[in-house]
Amino acid sequence: MVQTMYGVPRPDPIGYLGQVAATGPGRAYKTYALAALELRPGLTVVDAGCGPGTDLGALADAVTGTGSVIGVDHDPVMLGEARRRTAGRAGVEVRAGDAQALPVADDAADRARADRVLMHVAEPARVVAELRRVVRPGGLVALTEPDWDTLTVDPGEVETGRAFNRFVCGSMVRHATIGRRLARLAAEAGLEVVAARVLAPTLSDFATADQVLGLRRNAERAVNTGELDAEAARSWLAGLAGPHFSASFMLYAVTARVPG
Ligand SMILES: C[S@@+](CC[C@H](N)C(=O)[O-])C[C@H]1O[C@@H](n2cnc3c(N)ncnc32)[C@H](O)[C@@H]1O
Hints:
Helix content is about 40%, strand content about 25%. The chain is of the alpha/beta class. The chain starts with 12 loop residues before the first helix and ends with a strand. α6 (about 160-170) packs across α9 (about 215-225) and α8 crosses α9 (about 215-225). The chain is elongated and about 55 Å long. It has helices spanning about 15-20, 25-35, 55-65, 75-85, 125-135, 160-170, 180-190, 205-215, 215-225, 230-240, and strands at about 45-50, 70-75, 90-95, 110-115, 135-155, 190-200, 200-205, 245-255. The protein has a single domain (about 15-255), classed as Rossmann fold. Strands 1, 2, 3, 4, 5, 6, 7 and 8 form an 8-stranded mixed β-sheet that branches.
């Protein structure tokens, strides 16, 4: 485990995804995203960028043993963990592949989703096109992505917070503001948007927010690259670590139907 300047261990990717899903806001948005798919027994659902299988169990519960769940990811470590978690679960299959070229046949699924995946891929529009391709006409596609330019924290110097967001959006996340584009991406892929919601996950515990949002580790990176003044970062973080902390950001959730 590598310690950073501010003494924060960098989380391992699997542990990090588990932490996010276990927070109150994490559970709340995942409950919403699952309900948006209108799953029922017997359906087939594709989870593109399934990670360590965070949601495969819940998807399998919803479609029951008469349905199918296909998780796809390109990361061997994630695939290994997803397979370990779902071993022995009837109807669950984990496939290696690129979300931009899904290893799933045309019209093979009733539902497809991508949860916090588009922000990381080279061409988000290709993923949306793939989700549409694999879902039969009349089926649903659900997308959830944050918009990291909307992160607000309090207390703390507003200008330092803006500089932090600029660094995260410019250097840390490939498509950091994809959330606001989700509904347009779905429409441009020929999908009929049936719901476009903005959720506002809010964290009131600094330690949890620090883990989930990387406040200290990304501030350290920004200082190291000269994009954040060291004293401004120190003062900002000291203020955030005090009482009455809050952090929130916009998380966009779009549900869309495949026409026909
Ligand atoms: C932030 S994680 C989200 C994982 C999971 N959906 C969840 O909510 O916990 C993003 C996942 O997308 C995967 N991913 C990124 N780019 C991908 C690509 N081009 N094809 C397949 N998976 C990809 C990563 O390996 C990672 O597991």
